[in-house]
Design a protein that fits this description.
This protein is mainly beta and 484 residues long. It contains eight helices and 19 strands. The strands form two sheets. Strands 1-2-3-4-5-6-7-8-9-10-11-12-13-15-16-19 form a 16-stranded antiparallel beta barrel. The protein has a three-stranded antiparallel beta sheet with strand order 14-17-18, with no helix packed on it. The longest helix is centred in the first third of the chain and has 26 residues. The protein is globular and about 70 Å long.
């Protein structure tokens, strides 16, 4: 029987080797001359509608899923494989109830912001190797002790693939390997990716008030599967006859030769992904898919086992907790011009088993559970006008240590009256694309429950406790999204 240490060594060696080969391939891309045409459209000769449902990035059509699964290699390699994206936004919270200072507790509320900008390096390297890599600059990343805003640039999503495809009269078989920094970026149905996240719907950026305040922009407890960005993952996958998909991978902390997958500022020592124990934290994704006429239907399951060191200072010890996620998900699409309709759902159950250290230091229970549900419907007309409705619900064990401990003075925190993570969030949205590369949208975040009820304890910037209604966190969010 092969030991866990030997498995860790094999996986680490494979990850570093694939990273080196991919870096050499990216360098070969940049040796060519410049091009000013849109990235994947230039490579494939197809319009945005071919790959994205209703032209809305990043939600994929059946053709878009095949393009990703074949490693972004279809078409002719572009000379300079770069794209850019920027988001400007404005947000207004419903109420400052309980705040000592709205400027401290809700920074940038009611103020227009150029929120983020990203550069993408994407596309074909060889006939079998391709890459999707995003580097982001956040103009409102954090505030220092004096209240001044700090900018931050960081690696974002990374997916480097090797793939091959075999087709005959009765079989269409795609297989490949992916080096990536979170399970969501590999998933061609976007179950755990930004397209499905209720916080920003399709828009991969929030308003600056989300960065440094206690204002919730997502449910307060999510499975670890949603929090592994900036880890290092290696997965193998296959797709048979456009009907059966399987992916098996493992994740580890992105250290040493894999540190290019890690954002030291956002995914710092406190992040779950930087505290993964060993190299064998397995991930499984299975899906059955059926395409007919203008319709597409997928049903799938997903699972993850992760061991996480309890503290960044304890990564050389045996003090770690384990998280076991298992769930199911599905997607239905109807794509027939001028209509594009997509329905998504995902349910994940998580068992959290704490070490003795974690039980003593934080949790009052030796173990907890969490149920996490998301659903979303999106309709786009003539690839220009659209609307969506997203819903997120979290329900879990009551735990006085995690959801009920009083914070230290002069800190911000949201605490449950009944020590529960239970929360419900609705996000309706309307949007328009006046031209292909610009999207303007309006979202409304409506909380019907937060931390177990309609009210919870809010600690403001001066450490003063007060009662705050869940509806006080309701938020109007206006954005302009440019991608080219």
């Amino acid at each position: 029987m092969v030991s866990t240490q030997r498995i860790d060594a094999y996986v680490s060696q494979a990850l570093v080797s694939l990273a080196i080969l991919s870096a050499l391939g990216i360098g070969f891309i940049f040796s060519k001359s410049a091009s000013a045409l849109p990235l994947f459209a230039r490579q494939t000769g197809q319009s945005c509608l071919a790959c994205h449902a209703g032209g809305q990035f990043p939600e994929l059509t059946p053709y878009g899923r095949l393009f990703k699964l074949t490693g972004y290699t279809q078409g002719v390699r572009t000379d300079i494989p770069l794209a850019v994206m920027a988001v400007a936004s404005y947000a207004k919270v419903s109420s400052y109830n309980g705040s000592d200072s709205s400027g401290v507790d809700f920074p940038r509320d009611g103020t227009a912001n150029i929120t983020t900008a990203s550069v993408f390096c994407c596309g074909k390297i060889t006939d079998n190797i391709g890459v999707f890599a995003q580097y982001t600059h956040d103009l409102w990343a954090s505030q220092d002790a004096s209240g001044s805003w700090q900018e931050h640039s960081h690696i974002d999503q990374v997916d480097i693939r090797y793939s091959d495809r075999f087709i005959d009269e009765s079989h269409d078989f795609i297989y490949g390997l992916s080096l990536n920094n979170n399970p969501g970026v590999t998933d061609v149905w976007n179950t755990h990716n930004s397209a499905f996240a209720p916080v920003s719907s399709y828009v991969p950026a929030g308003n600056a008030i989300f960065s440094s305040s206690a204002l919730p922009h997502d449910v307060p407890a999510t499975p670890i599967l949603e929090g592994l960005q900036y880890s290092a993952g290696l997965s193998g996958y296959f797709y048979l006859n456009n009907a059966l998909y399987a992916e098996v991978g493992t994740y580890k902390a992105s250290t040493s030769g894999l540190s290019f997958l890690h954002d030291a500022g956002v995914g710092g020592p406190g992040a779950l992904s930087t505290r993964l124990s060993g190299s064998f934290n397995p991930y499984l994704r299975l899906a059955a898919n059926h395409d007919w006429n203008a319709n597409s239907l997928m049903l799938g399951i997903h699972a993850l086992h992760a061991s996480v060191f309890d503290d960044a200072t304890l990564i050389n010890s045996n003090s770690y907790s384990t998280f076991n996620d298992i769930g199911m998900d599905g997607q239905y699409q109807y794509l027939l011009d001028p209509h594009a309709l997509t329905l998504l759902f995902s349910f994940t159950h998580e068992n959290q088993n704490y070490s003795g250290y974690q039980h003593t230091a934080n949790s009052f229970n030796p173990s907890d559970t969490l149920n996490y549900l998301r659903a979303k419907i999106t309709y786009v007309f003539r690839a220009r006008y659209g609307a969506s409705l997203a819903y997120t619900q979290a329900q879990g064990s009551s735990d006085l240590g995690i959801y009920g401990a009083s914070p230290a003075a002069n800190t911000q925190a949201n605490l449950s009256f009944n020590h529960s993570p239970d929360s419900k969030l609705w996000v309706p949205e309307v949007f328009v694309m006046p031209v292909q590369n610009i999207r303007v949208g309006l979202q409304y975040f409506k909380w019907s429950q937060f931390l177990g009820g309609h009210t919870y304890t809010y600690y403001s910037g001066l450490g003063t406790p007060s009662s705050r209604d869940a509806s006080d966190n309701n938020l109007a969010f206006l954005y302009v999204w440019l991608a080219y």
